[in-house]
Amino acid sequence: MSIEANRLKLGSDLAELKRLAGWIESQQELSGETSFAIQLCIEEAVANVIMYGNCGKDDRLQITVHLERNDEIVVAHIEDNGREFDPTRFQPLSAAKSLQEAKVGDLGIHLMRSFANGMHYERRDGRNWLTLRFVAPF
Q: Per residue in 16-45, pLDDT tens?
């Protein structure tokens, strides 16, 4: 069972999500709704980093997505040099009365919790490391 791995470096602009989506599609041999769910989770994780990971005036936010896959698992590692932001510490989204009442970041974290089989965060060497694991059946 071999694992294929690929890496993409992203800038700090939300427009990079379009490039990320195309890259994920080109890396996966998944189909249909599952591929879309995995792509959406990774995009939401990166969007949260861009929105909440502001480095400051002098530092530029650097994001790297590392995707590993085989027939049984897809693992996305998202690494960045932004402010500490641990999505695993947020509780699952409670039922909001309306979409406007829910926070965008909370919705992204709720999506990641709904589709990913595992989510792990750690702060290492001044960098955020988020791992999302998706297990077959896809």
A: 888 888 888 777 665 556 677 888 888 888
Q: Are 87 and 72 in contact (CB under 8 A)?
A: no
- Grade residue 123 by pLDDT with cuts at 50, 70 and 90: very high
Superfamily the domain 4-135 falls into: Histidine kinase-like ATPase, C-terminal domain (3.30.565.10)
Q: What is the pTM of this model?
A: 0.78
Residues whose CB falls within 8 Å of the CB of residue 103, separated by 6 or more in sequence, listed in order: none
Contacts by 8-12, CB closer than 8 A, 24 or more apart: 8/64, 8/65, 8/67, 9/62, 9/63, 9/64, 10/46, 10/63, 10/64, 10/65, 11/61, 11/63, 12/50, 12/53, 12/60, 12/61, 12/62, 12/63
- Order of all β-strands in the sheet with 73-80: 4-10, 63-69, 73-80, 127-135, 118-124
**Domain assignments of the chain as residue spans, ordered by start:** 4-135
